[in-house]
Design brief:
Its cofactor is Fe cation. By secondary structure, this protein is mainly beta. It contains one helix and 27 strands. The chain is about 5% helix and about 50% strand.
């Protein structure tokens, strides 16, 4: 999925200085952003207060939206570099096509994992005949310097591991939790888990103390270590935790994201992750001129143009605002 803001912020982020070395309970507000022609998303990373959780650098939560009488998702071909996209659907279907020739329809609770690496372009659309509701999350993972220029790749996993215990059903998208390990390729120590909680659930989940974590609700609400969490915000848990306690009165669905604090400083602007403002400007120029990025086969139509670059040079601003 593309960042479709007409004037996207540029972020220089990473490093360990602002990563909490101890447990935290910081409620981070998201913001509403218009995606494409009519899809509104809640942007939870980067957000006011924090730009990274582990290597997770971008989190959009959208829906549930009634798209029965509309085209649904319509994101034209656009580029990516230096990151992975993790697409997670709770309702609906999305047709993914990319410059590698991948052509798949992604359904709920299937993992669509795209490694941009050196360069990739892709498009995402609801199929012509699509389900009534569209609901999901689009997540980006920053790639470390050693692999950020790797060859692009796409993985589609239709079955994912998980576990059920004490009123929670967990599906592991990335990394490992509770003895279940995702088949998705990860390039940094991280974890991403969908947590479906029954009404009245009271569960304590195991965590890695060396990881920092964030939690968001896709539906419903939950009590997380005594803090109420509802859609539209992310709760930052810091690191140093071995467990987290979740309680619900009604059914809820949460996403747990975490990983080792990302040591490298990176620049993220529009759909690119690089290491300097000059490099980002070069990516934008190459996209505009048709260099570096291949076309998306089978897509008949326009592609997205890059927004204007910020007028001022990028300045280091770290992991938090």
């Amino acid at each position: 999925m593309s960042n479709l803001e007409p004037r996207p912020d540029a972020h220089e982020l990473g490093g360990l200085a602002a990563a909490s070395a101890r447990p935290a309970l910081e409620l981070l507000p998201g913001k509403e952003v218009l995606l494409g022609e009519g899809t509104r998303v809640r942007r939870l990373l980067p957000t006011l207060g924090r730009r990274l959780v582990g290597a997770w650098a971008f989190v959009d939560h959208y829906g549930p939206d009634d798209v029965w009488t509309s085209a649904g998702m319509e994101v034209l071909p656009h580029p990516h570099t230096g990151l992975q996209t993790v697409s997670w659907l709770l309702d609906g279907e999305v047709h993914h096509r990319d410059s590698l020739g991948s052509d798949v329809v992604v359904k709920p609770r299937e993992l669509a994992l795209m490694t941009a690496g050196h360069a990739i372009a892709h498009a995402e659309q609801s199929p012509a005949q699509h389900p009534r509701f569209l609901h999901g999350a689009q997540l980006w993972v920053a790639l470390p310097d050693a692999v950020r220029d790797t060859a692009p790749a796409f993985e589609h996993h239709t079955a994912l591991p998980g576990f059920s215990s004490d009123g929670v059903s967990a599906t592991v998208l990335m990394g490992s939790l509770g003895g279940a390990t995702s088949p998705g390729t990860a390039h940094t120590p991280l974890v991403g888990v969908d947590l479906a909680l029954d009404a009245g659930a009271d569960v304590e989940l195991p965590l890695e103390p060396d990881f920092e974590y964030g939690l968001l609700t896709a539906s419903g609400s939950a009590d997380v270590e005594g803090v109420p969490l509802t859609p539209g915000a992310m709760l930052y848990l810091g690191s140093g935790r071995r467990t987290v306690r979740l309680r619900t009165e009604a059914p809820a669905e949460l996403l747990l994201l975490g990983g080792e604090p990302f040591e490298e400083r990176i620049v993220m602007w529009w759909n690119f992750v690089g290491r300097s403002g000059e490099e980002i400007a070069e990516f934008a120029e190459q996209w505009a001129e048709g260099d570096r990025f291949d076309d998306v086969p089978g897509f008949d139509g326009y592609r997205l143009g890059a927004p204007a670059l910020p007028p001022l040079p990028l300045k280091p601003r770290g992991r938090v605002r």
